[in-house]
Every structure is written in C-alpha cells, then in structure tokens.
Amino acid sequence: MLIKRRTFTKALGAGLAAGALPAFGHQARAADFKAGYVYVGPIGDHGWSYQHDQGRLAADKALGITSTYVEKVPEGADAERVIRELAETGHGIIFTTSFGFMDPTLKVARDYPEVKFEHATGYKRADNVSTYNIRFYEARYIQGVIAGKMSTSGVVGYIGSIPIPEVIMGMNAFILGMRSVNPQGRIKQVFINSWYDPGKEADAAKALLDQGADIIAQHTDSPAPLQVAQERGLKGFGQASDMIKFAPDAQLTSAVDFWDDYYTERTKAAMEGSWASHDVWGGLKSGMLHMAPYANMPDDVKQMAMATEADIRDGKLTIFKGPINAQDGSAKVAAGEVLDDGAIAGMDWLAQGVEGDLPK
Amino acid sequence: MESAVLVSILLSVIAASTPLLLAGIGELVVERSGVLNLGVEGMMLVGAIAGFAVTYSSGSASLGILAAALGGMAMALVFAFLTLTLQANQVATGLALTIFGIGLAAMMGAGFVGHPVPKLPGLDLPLLSAIPVIGPLVFGQDFLVYFSIAAVIGASWFLYRSHGGLVLRAIGDSHDAAHAIGYPVIRIRYLACLFGGAMSGLAGAYLSLSYTPMWAEDMSAGRGWIALALVVFATWRPGRLLLGAYLFGGITILQFHVQTMGLGIPPQFVSMLPYLATILVLCAISSDATRIRLNAPACLGRPFHAAG
C-alpha cells in the first residue's frame, strides 16, 4: 500500500513538473496567467466535455500557459462554488461549458469584475461575461440530407437527450434537410432524459431500429448508438467528435465541435487586455464546427453532402427559412421568412415530419 | 408484429437484464450472509475498466472477463477488510466504495477512452443457432448471458441444497448463534463478499465488452443501484431475482417503445416503474412481520463481534 502511494505521489510530482516546465520558458506574464475550465461531464466521455478539453489543451499549448479544469461539475449549487473557487485562486479567464452553469457564472462574475468569464450555450451576458456557442444545427441539416438519400424505409430514429431548444432545433434542421431530398422522410424520436448514458443510448437505438428506422441520429454524447447501428449493418451519425473508430462501417459523418481556436483567441485576448464581452454563435463558416469525413455512402450522396456543406458555409443556404410547417401541418414560418437567432434559440415546436410529442 | 422484430426486442431485453442479474445475484449472496455492500456500482465500474483494459491490451476477451472478476474481487476485499476485520460501518463503507470505485475506474480508464474493442462473440452453433426465433435467443447469446443464468441456478442450489449454503444463511440470520456452534462467521462473510465482488465485476465486463463494447466513465450509470433494489425486490430469493431482473430489463426497453408508439404515457413514468415496484414490494414485505423474518437476513448490515 505504502509503496504504491509513494510511487503514485512520485508520478504525480513528475506530472506536475512536466506540466509546469514549458511555462518557465515563456515571458513571466504568460507563466503567471491561468485559465480555468468547468466541465459538466467527465473528460472521458469522448463527446462534449472531451472536445472542450481538447480545446483547452490546444490553447495551453499555443499560449504556453497552464490551466485548471474541474470535470463532472453538477449544474446547481456546486457549480457556483467551483466557479468561485477558480475566480478566487487567480484565474484570469474562466470558461463554463454547460447551459446550466449560466446563473452561477453570472453570480460569481458580479463579485469578480476583473476576471473574464465565458459561458457556453447560454444567453445571459455582462461586461465581464461572454457567451459562445456552435450552430450544431448546420451539421444536422447536412445529416438530414444524407439520411434522406440513404434511408430505404424513409424513417430515421433520433435519440434526444432533453427537450430544450438546442435539441429541438437540431431535430427540426435534420427533418428539413431530409425532406429537401425526400419529402416523405420521417423522424421517430425518443428522449432518454440524459446527455450521457451509453447503455440507455444503446437501448434507445435498438428500440428505434426495431420500430422501422434504418438510420440513427443522436443528440446524446456516447458512441453507443453507432455501435448498435454497426452491429445491425445499418448507418448512423456521430456526435461532438469523430466516432468512426467505433463504427467503421456505420458512421456516415459526425458533427465535430472545434473549440481550439476560440479558446486560444479568447485566452490571448484576456492576457493582452483586449478582451471584451461578446456573443458568438459560430458554425461551419467560423470553423467552430467541422464535419467528420463523409463515409460509407455512394459518391453522389457524398457530393451532395459536400455541396450542402459549402452552401451553408457560403451563406447560400439558410436553414430556417420558410415555408416551414409545424408538426400538425399548419404553417409555422411563412414562405420567404427567415427565423432570426432569437427565434432559433428559443425553438419549442417540432416541424412536420417529426413524429411523437415532446416529453412534457 | 413480425417475428424478427420480436426477436430483436427480446434480445435487447436480455442485454438490458444481464448486467442487473449478474450484479444482483452476487449481492443477494452477500446479503444472505448478513453483509450489506452498497458498493456494487463502484465494483461494477472497476470490473468494467479492468475487463476492457485487459481485453484491449491482450486481445483476449477471456482474459478480460477474468480480470473483471478479479477487479471486482479486489474492491470487495477492501470492503470486507474494512467492515469485517476493522468493523467499520457497512453502509458508510459501501457508499465510500462506490465513490472510490467511480474515481478509481476513471483514473484507470483515462488512457482507454475513445478505443473500441470487438463485441464479445455470441455462441454460434451449426443448425441450432439458425433456428428462427429460438436460435438467436437461446443459442446465440454470449458467454456472460449463459453464465448469469447458470449463476442464478448455482446460487439457488448452493443456498437451499448445500451444507455451505445452510451455514451461510445461518450466519446471515444469527451470526452469534452460528459462531457459538463453531462456524467461521468472518471467513464465510469474506468469501461471500469476494463472490459478490466477482459478480459485480462480471456485470461491469458485460457492460464494457458486450452491451456497449467501449470504456466510458460512469458507464454503469446507476445500474449497480438498480441491482441493489433488485435484491430487495426479489426478497432475497434467486428465482425471484431472475424474474425481477428480466422485468426491470423489460421495462427499460419498453419505455422507448412506449415513446415511439405515441401512447401518451410520459417516459419518465415508465422509467420509474422498477423503483416504484421495489417500493411497493418493500411496503408489502414490511407490513407483515412474519414475511420479514422469513425473507430478510436478520443480521443484515450488523457488525459481528466474536465476543466470548
């Protein structure tokens, strides 16, 4: 026991030293500056929090600084304590990376006006609080186009996490993309009430495939649904990171969150004193959203997906542009009307082609 | 409903039930010996990562399964040492074991995130596995599924038909009396704990090698707690545990079908059904003092002092 602990301490010491060393090589200011990150999940989720941590590592490397991260922080009272702790211990910029960290972030920000805060996916800002998010729905539209071409049953199984606007806009973008190539396309959806539960995600995927879907789309974080598709010889889409390793014959593509540049840029701005509060909602165009390589599809579908991606990037294609019908067939967005960011960010209705009610 | 769809639904039910059954039968034997180990979730996770890591590194699923059982046993040994030898509080130690296990597994697994392993192969018998409906259900499962059924039968036989089982139950019901007759209370409880640890470890291996063949932190997502509820639901009887595990697994799968069918039943309601059932069973058995005496091990959770 004792030897083990000693070895562990030694390893820890070595790790700390290695982590600290590169910082000494830089100017004093860089070595002094600390960035803090708060994650809702474990960085081992290989999804949402994992990608944020990849961004953190990239920013640290680019700027030669050290950062602190706290993972698995519950969205509640604990979050405020963690954020306050980071602010109190001299972190110049703090990234809080889940929607539920919104109010705690603002609360702490009021008490530490000199510290810069960056809150992902929220909508409340202050002089020292920015918000930033990715237009994930752009990727969902492309996935919908691919699914419309690839599905023989015309039914896509969609695994939702929690029925918030973020998830709903993704589902709607997907069906709009799908119906642009197959007007009869349908989505069957289930919500698992969790962002991350590999077993439950796999169960949901199986149920959807048993209900006649032949392609799986997911708004949950583990590669488990893709593994189910792989096992059954069907197709699916990854989430947050490239999951092709888990489903070499099943993954069509995946939306890949790319925070590296944003974190580097914002941390640099905070270090140089040029930081200002803003609201960024980046997508394919700004490089915050990447598409994993298109795979397991015929060339014509691939061409179509790439053309769609290019059109979205160039602004030639606007996803939430009327006419869009609501689930019951009534007109929701008039022809020619374009939803503004506020309407997209607050989306609480399902588009035609999505079956089933949202859980109340 | 097409038979292919039915088979596929039943296959998902079996997959959802197996980890509950493996962990549940282990915990049942532990509790029958009078020890309450709330660390199932932690042991399961350590088993999951041990099984995954060894399978990934060695390429052998058999070695992985063995490692998972050993991993669970190592955790159980810590628990047994603390509660049986040092007589620490079992509830507190069990909870600590879960929290410790979650952290330990995450640390062990840090280097294994994002790597897949091949799924545990299913039995593939010529002719038999090709029979429609029965083939894939009965002759197409993987080793751990068969093992989980065998473990229930084995545990049932052991508890009710063997001398060892009689001793174990006697210790669980009255450790003082069993000690007075000369039975080694502590040693038997150690063995029971180790068995429970091994089974929890195998449940973890099922998760990381068959259910979703990958390692992800917290991948058990509360299944260890369901297994604990299951033991109470089963009123400490292996047969009922088997039934309960498949019922719990069935409800897990059912909730998704209920959602897609648009029956208007809130999915949250369906997903709480297993727990509701457990509470109802608890109420039922607590309302009748005789039944409690008949079923719950009388010394459950009580430390044993070898006095006099």
Descriptive terms for the model:
heterodimer; A: 360 residues; alpha/beta; Rossmann fold; 2 domains; 7-stranded mixed sheet; 6-stranded parallel sheet; 12 helices; 15 strands; 42% helix; disordered N terminus; B: 308 residues; mainly alpha; ABC transporter involved in vitamin B12 uptake, BtuC; 13 helices
Strand order of the largest sheet of chain A: 12-10-9-8-6-7-15
Q: What is the helix tally of chain B?
A: 13
Give the tally of β-strands of chain A.
15
What's the CATH architecture name of chain B? Answer: Orthogonal Bundle
Q: Give the % helix of chain B.
A: over 70%
Rg calc of chain A: 22 Å
Name the shape of chain B in a single word: globular
Distance between the termini of chain B: 67 Å
Largest sheet of chain B, in brief, is: none
Q: What value does the average pLDDT of chain B take? A: 90
Report the CATH C-level class of the largest domain in chain A.
Alpha Beta
Which series of helices and strands of chain A comes N to C? HHEHEHEHEEHEHEHEHEEHEEHEEHE
Q: Biggest interface, and residues per chain? A: A-B, 41 and 42 residues
The value of Rg of chain B in angstroms is 20 Å
Categorize the overall geometry of chain A: globular
Q: Under the CATH scheme, which architecture of the largest domain in chain A would be assigned? A: 3-Layer(aba) Sandwich
CATH topology term of the largest domain in chain A: Rossmann fold
Query: How many domains make up the 3D coordinates of chain B?
Result: 1
Tell me about the biggest sheet of chain A?
7 strands, mixed
CATH class categorisation of chain B = Mainly Alpha
Q: Would you identify the CATH H-level superfamily of the largest domain in chain A?
A: Response regulator
Commentary on this structure:
The complex is a heterodimer of chains A (360) and B (308). Chain A is an alpha/beta fold. Chain A has twelve helices and 15 strands. Chain A folds into two domains: 26-134 and 259-282, Response regulator (Rossmann fold, 3-Layer(aba) Sandwich), CATH 3.40.50.2300; 136-256 and 320-355, Response regulator (Rossmann fold, 3-Layer(aba) Sandwich). In chain A, strand 6, helix 7 and strand 7 (186-191) form a beta-alpha-beta unit. Chain B has 308 residues and is mainly alpha-helical. Chain B has a single domain (15-121, 142-295), classed as ABC transporter involved in vitamin B12 uptake, BtuC. Helices cover 73% and strands 0% of the residues of chain B. The longest helix of chain B is centred in the N-terminal third of the chain and has 30 residues, at 3-32. Chain B starts with a helix and ends in a 13-residue tail after the last helix. The A-B interface holds A 42-46, 50, 188-194, 196-204, 206-211, 222-224, 227, 231, 241, 245-246, 355-357, 359-360 and B 5, 8-9, 11-12, 15-16, 19, 106, 109-110, 113-116, 119, 207, 211-221, 223, 252-253, 256-257, 259-262, 264, 266-268, 271.
